[in-house]
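#dry-run=false #mode=assembly
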Amino acid sequence: MIRLNTRGRAVKDAAQEAELFRRRAIAGFLIIAASLMVLLGRYAYLQVGRHEEFTTRSEQNRIRLRPLAPSRGLLYDRNGKLLAENVPQYRLEITPQHVGNVESALKRLGEVVALSDEDLERFREQYQPRRPFVGIPLRLQLSEEEVARFAVERYRFPGVEVVPYLTRHYPYGEAFAHVLGYVGRVDAADRERMDPERHGWVTQIGKSGIERRYESDLIGSAGYEEVEADVSGRALRVLRRVAPVPGRHLYLSLDADLQTAAIQAFGGQPGSAVAIDPRNGEVLAFVSMPSFDPNLFVNGISRRDYTALLNGKDQPLFNRALSGAFAPGSTVKPFVALAGLEAGIREPDDTVFSTGDFHLDGTNQVYRDWKKGGHGRVDLTNALAESVNTYFYKLAVDLGIERLSSALAGYGFGRATGIDLSGEALGVLPSREWKLATRAKAWYQGETVLAGIGQGYWVVTPLQLSHAMATLANGGVPHQPHLLIATQDGYNAVRTAAAAIAPGSTLITDPSHFEAVRRGMVAVVNAPNGTARRIAVGAPYVIAGKSGTAQRYSRDAREEYDEANVPEALQHRALFVCFAPAEAPRIAVAVVVDRGISGSRSAAPIARQILDAWLNRPVP
Amino acid sequence: MNALNGNELVRRGRALLARHLINPGLDLQLLVALLLLSATGLTVLYSASGGNLTLVGNQALRLALGFAAMLVLARVPPNVFRIWTPWFYGGTLLLLVIVIELGEGRGANRWLDLKFVRFQPSELAKIALPMMVAWFLSRRVLPPDWRTLAMAGFWIVIPALLIAKQPDLGTALLVAASGVFVVFLAGLAWWRIGLIVGVAAAIAPFAWEHLHEYQRNRLRMFIDPEADPLGNGWNIIQAKIAVGSGGVFGKGILESTQSRLDFLPEHTTDFIFAVFSEEFGLVGVSLVVLLYLFIVARGLMIAVNARDTYQRLLAGSISMTLFVYVVVNGGMVSGLLPVVGVPMPLISYGGTSAVSLLVAFGVLMSIHAHRRLAG
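#status=ok
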């Protein structure tokens, strides 16, 4: 109700206004009280109803799991010499979640620490936008100066940390590169074969050789640290720690001194050598020349270095001992001789007359001896000593390809030896079945003739040759070649011998057959007419060996290096296989020189030096 | 008239001084409540700033300044405020225009640098606007009719728009709210209020078109903060985590990990109440909210007992506006309302808003001191 004045206009009524205000003040207060109760209700809902959820999320905010990388297992040689170790290094790691604009941070970081295009490219490859909380290594192997420089600028880079880590180092460098292999940065392909729970944090992984083969032993398993971290990911204090389980140390059958001696013996020539203890199949030396420095790969090889290796002279990255495949030539003759004896079609004293030419009945094809005019009448010993082709042409024909190839198959030709390395070439053991399967053609007898002297379809690897020689030296009992001899869980732990591999059953039924072949091989080195008689000089033990020389021919692109610069005389592949001491063999060796004069001249002296390095030291 | 002798003069002077000392014109209950709140604020600030005593000292100094201003203003008769209201309002408008032209501040023109002091004219508007609307309405017949309402609306909208243009949407809303409360307390009929709210709701979609992108983002984030957990939603999520993890009794003072580890942005200013909630839990939150409610209630009682309509409306508006701060900030921190830059009164770090708030309460105290005598 509004009061009007005399002119009909409303007048103010103080009492009424006061009353109106009082009512409004009460209404206002009630509204306010109700609103504040709603607000309190909201807090009660968050602080009581959803308390647990938010406590968890607060903890998740606060607490970060930091994986603790276990140290990778070390590699030792048979005498406990360190072949692969771990050395401390620093790397730069980015946790994208806390960086904000990653690209601009990278740009600014580049002003503090040198970043190559490759570093950036690798970082982007590993960047997983869905897991921004995972730290990604950006630069490895920071120098001390770079670490110090970054420390000063640290505040500008939330989410970027310098992280200490252990990196692999191979103290012998090139010497063991082809057998130990190397570790490298984890790439996408590696991720697929890793257990993300256990190894998701791993930055280095075995890429080849022993490092790859025994990855699961070497890698260990991750521990972690619960750290309290601030919003920029900086760790403030450690709340809990579960120690990592370090990787297993591996003891290998290799002998560092023998390996070094073997490499020296090559004097820089391209080639390969494998030495095996015939009594148990332990690989003592494993050489492929030229080699490369595996340390280059550990923290990611630069493109320039890699290109240099790829295009390097004589292909340093190519593992000749494991994958180099070529015709064995005369080095198969002891095995062929043995096959003849075992088949009962030859006695050691049976002789063959060598005229220099050999004809198959009913063909015009001539097969020659290496000596013009032939060797005259030779028995088994002389046939081996002088490497008389005619003897073995005839023997091969008499045996026939079936018996020949089945006998030689026992020595491991034409298949993987089963050594604990991957990438083995299989080689070719000539046989009717093989030819039918691969060439879809019938077998000709002329091919049997060639097979008898390790030519024709024959392809072997140095490892196969060495393994076959070791089997022969062991009286025909094959031991699978292997490198791992023992494992050890941490320092001072007891060494556990690697699981023994049962030897195969003997390939030689009559020990006198082995005696006869051994006599022939001893004659190769020790008889006045032996092809490799030069290397016996001054040897305090008796060597049994066999040389081989094969014409080089381009079987595949790998062999196409610049032949024009190679003297005519050196265009042969020189081979030598041997074991010693002849009466109780402790080592079997196969040596291949890619560009040599002949097996006895180029490869045998290297074999002698390897034998010396092993046998001229006190027997343990 | 007898000439006063010297003794009489001294006696009267002493009596005056004594009266002022005993009763400095302050409402003791309100004063205690404000002091309690300030002490709470300084404590949380100490914790939220990671024990930064410089920061706490700064804030304490400004609070002291604010309380001193309150003491002085309490002695000024409300009529003085009333007489100067149109001038004060006009001056504030002028400064608001100037600050848009010349002001400085991060991303927004809020600060005016007068060489000897830097301040935000929008803080002046917080008191000038309710004064102006109260002054205007106290001269009109109440409850207001449409014409009066339109005029009052005009006085409200002009400074609100100027502040929104800075752009400072939060302060603009608060300033407008203080004017709206005056109109509400003046007795605007409920049916008129209903009609206005209805029309406002109908034209809201058009207002959306005129918001800045960052303001829209805040509103969008408010609807679904978890949609962009590392971007715009971060503040809300981290604040909710802080509040929720506090539980009933809180983690204890200096134990806010969300603040200590920097997960919570602006943890000394707009989001300080999240730190408080984390450390003191629902118990602490309830006590503080009740303290605010008490202050509002006390302020409204002072208003009811005020001498005239101008004082009533002004005192009522000052009291109710405090509640808006609390609800908007408390709602923002707990994810109930969008993120707008409104401090928690007397708890958030920031001198200007604390001083302007205490100045407003100084006016309230003056109204209390010159209240209608009982009866």
